[in-house]
Amino acid sequence: MTLFTVARNAMRPAYLPTMAHKVYLRLRHGHDRERKAAEGWAGAHAQDMDAWGRRADPALWEESVAFARTLETSARPTVERVAAAGVDLGGPAGIELLYFLTRALRPAVALETGVAAGWSTAAILGGLAANGGGQLYSSDFPLFRISHPERYIGCVVPPELRDSWSLHIKGDRRNLPEILSHVPPIGLSHYDSDKTRNGREYFLHRVRPHTAPRHVLVMDDIQDNLVFREHAATYPAFRVFAYQGKYIGLTGPGLPAVERGSR
Ligand SMILES: C[S@@+](CC[C@H](N)C(=O)[O-])C[C@H]1O[C@@H](n2cnc3c(N)ncnc32)[C@H](O)[C@@H]1O
After folding, report:
1. Which of 73, 87, 223, 228 could form an SS bridge with 249, CB 3.0 to 4.6 Å?
2. What's the DSSP call for residue 157?
3. Burial environment of residue 254 by CB neighbours within 10 A (0 to 12, 13 to 18, 19 or more)
């Protein structure tokens, strides 16, 4: 990251308010205050994702794992090109989990925050395509540490899946009101953008009135703070998975139905 790149991205009028808000939150709240307690809680509740998927619906889990493998193989040239350019787009979300939930819930509308390379995007779009319909709305903010970051957003998303995708890149606080002003109830949401307490609470507060009766929420990096734990306590069920050195949380009124395998 060069200071020049960050400063140049920050000075673009469309991005300045989001950048300023990020800096404010960092200075005001810090990042790691709740991490130890959150990590302890997540670790104590974590279960094996693969075993969970096989129990919920073995055939669908197998399909989901196969989708993840195919995507990883087809995206390899892109990943290598991006890496050769010295660009780090961060780690992927749980591809097989998101594909599985999209197939199990068959949402008319899915919502995600945090696109970057687009692994989660591709997983949800792949599930929607297999379902034969549905629309994904994505909220992102270009990674300000890299030069001309817009060109990398969703770079691993296969072109044939993009017709059902609506991408917004002005940051959650501007994108979500725009998206929520016109979408039908959301069946599946995935949170993987601003990892602060403030950012997560804003999302949960804004999105909850727009969720479908069988909605499921997937939240990434729940070890950062206690927001997922607090939110999960308002539902009858939640799950926590350890995934590539972090924790993913799953909750919502639709979770028991997913676990019964009732598609
Ligand atoms: C961990 S990456 C997302 C990875 C992605 N889900 C995947 O599976 O490939 C986080 C993304 O969230 C974006 N982001 C950070 N703060 C944001 C905000 N306030 N609003 C929207 N996006 C934000 C980052 O720029 C980055 O693109």
Report:
1. 228
2. S
3. buried
> Which tokens go with 33?
């205050």
Q: Name the residue of 139, 140, 175, 222 to mutate for ligand 1: max ligand atoms within 8 A of Cβ.
A: 140
Domains of the chain: 3-259 (3.40.50.150)
User: For residue 75, with 0-12 CB atoms within 10 Å meaning exposed, 13-18 middle and 19 or more buried, which class applies?
Assistant: buried
Q: How confident is the model at residue 139 (pLDDT cuts 50, 70, 90)?
A: very high
Lowest mean pLDDT among 22-36, 40-54, 67-81, 177-191: 22-36
**How far apart are alpha carbons 121 and 107 in whole angstroms?**
14
Residue closest to 142 by CA, chosen among 89, 92, 202: 89
In the numeric block, the tokens 């819930």 are attached to 105
Q: Exposed/middle/buried for 6, CB within 10 Å: 0-12, 13-18, 19+?
A: middle
Token pair 């799953």 is at which residue?
Answer: 250
Strand, helix or coil at 143?
A: coil
72 CB-near residues (< 8 Å, 6+ apart): 95
* Residues in the chain, total: 263
Residue 199 CA to residue 195 CA, distance in Å, equals 6
Which atom of ligand 1 is found nearest the CA of 144? 25
Reported as a single tens digit per residue, the pLDDT across 192-214 is: 999 999 999 999 999 999 999 99
Q: What is the mean pLDDT of residues 83-101?
A: 90
What token pair was written down for 140?
């992102």
Rounded Cα gap, residues 222 and 225, in angstroms: 6
